[in-house]
Design goal:
By secondary structure, the chain is mainly alpha-helical. The chain has four helices and two strands.
Length: 90
């Protein structure tokens, strides 16, 4: 599936910051979920909202604070899309 260019760049930068022993599994899980999110929106392109939603839905709670920190470091504006949802301020 196609990616919006800036979203792909931010995603790659974020994945590079994930600890090596989690990097591959996190990348696979988020890409899969982001593709599902884009299809759900009837889009043929993965956009920022798809990736952010994938991270928030698939990252285990022990890694939540690290994920939020990394999202901010690479410039993903998760608050713009209403995250964290359901009072998940872990």
């Amino acid at each position: 599936m196609e990616w919006e260019k800036t979203t792909r760049e931010k995603f790659k930068a974020m994945v590079a910051k994930i600890p090596v022993f989690h990097r591959h599994i996190a990348e696979r899980a988020v890409v899969k979920r982001a593709e599902e999110n884009a299809r759900f929106r009837a889009s043929h392109q993965i956009e920022e909202q798809d990736v952010i939603s994938a991270f928030f839905s698939d990252v285990p709670s022990p890694f939540y604070s690290m994920m939020v920190r990394l999202l901010e470091q690479v410039g993903f504006d998760y608050k713009k899309y209403g995250f964290p949802k359901n009072g998940n301020n872990k």
